[in-house]
Fold this sequence. Notes:
With 287 residues, the protein is mostly beta strands. The chain has helices at residues 2-5, 18-32, 245-248, and strands at 8-10, 12-14, 40-47, 50-54, 62-63, 69-71, 74-78, 83-88, 93-96, 101-109, 116-117, 128-143, 151-156, 159-175, 180-198, 202-204, 210-214, 222-228, 232-239, 279-280. The chain has a domain at 2-35 and 99-264. The protein contains 3 helices and 20 strands. The strands form 3 sheets. The protein has a 16-stranded mixed beta sheet that branches. A two-stranded antiparallel sheet has the order 1-16. A two-stranded antiparallel sheet has the order 11-20. The longest helix is centred in the N-terminal third of the chain and has 15 residues, at 18-32.
Amino acid sequence: MLSQIGNSTKLYIMKISIVLVFSGILALFAQAVQGVPLANAKILNLSGTVTVHQGEDVASAKALKVGAIIKQGDVVSTGSQSTVKIAFSNGSVIDLDPNSQVELEVVTQKPYRGQKTYQHWDRDPSQSITLLNLNYGSLLGHVKKLTDASKFNVKTPLGVTVVRGTRFRVAFNYDSLSNHFRFVSQNIDGIVDVITDTEGQDIDYGTQNNVNLRLATAGDASTVMIAVPPAHVVSVTLPLDDPMAKQIVDLEKNIAPGATDGILPLPPIFPPKTEDDSEIVSPSGAA
C-alpha cells in the first residue's frame, strides 16, 4: 500500500490561525445548511450509563434508553464502562467509546422517501450535513458514501476530521503523565482528511503508517489539510504548558473525568459487533 501512496503526502497550506480555521469551518457549515431541515439520530444500543443534555445545560442531563431520539444541540456522554451506538438519518453510525462526550453540533438533512435499516444504506439518500464536536474520548464511525453536497466532520480542539465516506476513528484525550493533549484521526478504509495547524509543509509517512505532529500555535502557523491514506493514522499533540493551550482547549470541557489519573488508552479499533434492525427514516418530521 505504501508503494502505491508514495513516500510523502503533499499538503494544501493557508496562512491562517487555528481559531480562524474552526470559524471558517462553521461558516461553511452555516452556508451548507441553509434551507436544509433539522434531522435527528437514534440510539440503537447502549451499555452502562449514557446521558444526554442540551447545549450548555448540564443540569438537565438525563439517562438515555435504546430507541431514544436525539437531535442537533444534544450532548451525549458515556461513563467509564459505558458505550452507545448512534445511527443518523443518512444511515451513518458512530460508536461512542467509554469515558467520551460528543455534541451533535449540526445535524440536518433534506427529506427523502422510503425507509430502511441503517445496514441497508450504501450511501446517504439525500443531502445531509453533520458536524460532531468530540469534547473528549473517542468514537468509531462508519459514514456511508456521501453526495457531493453532503458533509460529515468531527471537530476537536486540535483539529478536524473530514470524512468523505469510510470507517474511521477519532480520539481526543489528555495524557496526565506527559501533560499533553492528543488528537488522533485514523482512516480504517476510505477517504479521510485532517485539518490542523502545523509547522510542517510536507508529511512523510516513510515506512510508518503514523504521522505525529505538534500543534503549531505561533502567529505564523500554517493551517494544513492532510490526506490520510487508508490504514494510516495522524496524531496531533499540544503540551499543556504551551502559552496558547488554555485558549485552544477548555480545561473544564475537554478533559474527561478520571483523565488526571493517568494515560487513557485508546479502545480496540473494532468494538464487538451487534445486531440491530432499527429503521432509519426521513427527517421531515424532526423537531
